[in-house]
Amino acid sequence: MATHLTNLSARVTIALSATAQKAIDLATPEAQMSAKRVLDLAFGAGAGQADLIWWDRRTVAKDMADDLDLAGALVDAFGETLSFANVKAIVLINRSDEAIGDHEATDAEIQVGGAAAAEFQGPFADASDAIVVPAGGAFAILSADADGWAVTATTHDILGITNLDADDEAVCDVVLVGESA
């Protein structure tokens, strides 16, 4: 492991619960459902493990890209430069709809994936694929297997974060969890 951390534990939870009702004569029956996935990652390398974590609140200028270099450019909370060998969780929360600091609430959409060059393909079917996250929305994807999604320095290491709004800046929180080289 090429990490400066001495320990890391992370829990990523995706959960949905719903109750559906239909009023009929003399009753209102309901159906309930829930779906949940929890990914617990312990310190290390392998299935269910990670040794790197990076997070940041990003402001992306209107109609611009904020490409994240996963292999040697991101600096963590301890001031260390990170180089991911693989990624096991990506979380992006589009906070454009919130007034944060100097940012006024907008409806800016953010595209995740599809960088202009050296695209990190990761969970996407093709290097040019991307997900559009509307203002107030979120995107999270998890990999519990030993390999996660491979990062290849200089050729497949850029995770595209693009503001699709031509009039307003976008604000998002991004979290990446994975393993070092």
Could you explain how this protein is built, in words?
By secondary structure, this protein is mainly beta. The protein has a single domain (51-180), classed as Sandwich (Jelly Rolls), CATH 2.60.120. 0% of the residues lie in helices and 49% in strands. It has strands at 10-21, 30-43, 49-50, 52-60, 68-69, 71-75, 81-94, 110-113, 130-133, 138-142, 149-150, 158-159, 161-163, 170-180. Strands 4, 6, 7, 10, 11 and 14 form a six-stranded antiparallel β-sheet that branches. A three-stranded mixed β-sheet has the order 1-2-3, with no helix packed on it. A hairpin with an 8-residue loop joins strand 1 and strand 2. The model has no long low-confidence stretch (mean pLDDT 95).
